[in-house]
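Next comes a concrete protein, fold included:
___
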Amino acid sequence: MHIGEKIRQLRMMKNMRQSELVEGICSVAYLSRIENGKTKPSAPFIRAVCQKLGIVPDDICDDDSNKKKQRIANIISQYKKTRILNETDEYLLKISLFESHLLDTRINIYTILIRHYLTDNRISEAQQVFQLSKKSVPDEVPPDLTIEFFYYYLNCGNIFFSTQDYIKATHYYELAERLSNRVGEKDLAILFYNLSLVKQHLSQDKTICLHYSQKSLDIHKKLGNEVDQAKVLITKATQYNLNHQYNQAIKCLDEALEIVLKTENVNFLGMIEYNYGRAYQSKGEIDTAIKHYETCLQLRSKIGAEQPKVHTYRELILIYMERKDLGKVDQYLKEGLRIAETYQQWYHYVEFHMFKALLYKSHFQEQLYEKETQRLIDMAVEKNQLNLAKKMAHDLGRHYYEKNAYKKAADFYDMALRFEALLHAPTTLADSES
């Protein structure tokens, strides 16, 4: 990448117009020629522009500068200690993505930027870095870089988990698991916890996700990490709920609540209330469940945690659909769809639209139900939400069977079987689409 292109990239990262960058320095036309590689910039120009961009000239002038390489190495080392990346260092690392560096440096840069962007909820930027990494990261892991690749795979999995693409997330978490024999116990507990979450969404047999959550819990207990213990206990409660072991779920929540009240970590109270709601909803104690869900939403609002509300809205939608309270259903659907789209939670985004389609059916608008469900199956495939695609195809097959439209019923039953086959081969699918 020539100097002009680096200047252009940095300018765009800072959302600066050409006129803003060169004000008091030169003409926009001169900058355009430099950015297009038609004119070699002068030393005074480089110094002035770099000052405005918040970098030093070495950052863009000499890819092989020992001073620059040492600075990148220092940024990597410092980030691993502090998990803090300032804006200037972020830009230098991002520019370095377009330069030639040794594999260990590249893999560290990819990992740091992905993690940094995910922490700041800048998902699209994390995805951009991931796509760049796929062009230069080899499939085969060098023996001396197993730890670096472990963290790279772990953070790649986190990208797909954040957008609810659990198939691809599983693929990268399982790659990380193969390299986990040399990492610390705390990071191992994080990986096991993440695996428990993706297995929870993909596996019919919930004993698999309970196995991983227990492995994570055992490590946190060994290390004495009470806050992490509470988080895993809440997740175990969710998994017990899914496995129809409601009393076990409540027992986990009681244990988690005791830790949370002792440590005064109010962030987990919303999660606990939500899972109490799930347990009581499943036990048929609906009014008690609603109270827990409403308390959960209040707690989420109090601490400004909007994104997790989507799970609570889902359960309230199901309750009020059953009670045929369409006003409440519409209210929670609007809020749920807004949050799911804003945070790219594609599983819930498709599912909420699926609920809307089911409302058509309940109002005897069968053609609307059929047309919308077929559209949503395509959307679910596009977003890699094959569990939902399978469910909708199966439901549509049963719908047509009940209408004596046996040919259409058979087509959708076959489609559901194809999705089921793909779900049982997640690694292959992830490889082919990465």
In short: The mean pLDDT is 91. The chain has 24 helices and no strands. Residues 1-61 form a domain with the 434 Repressor (Amino-terminal Domain) fold (CATH 1.10.260.40).
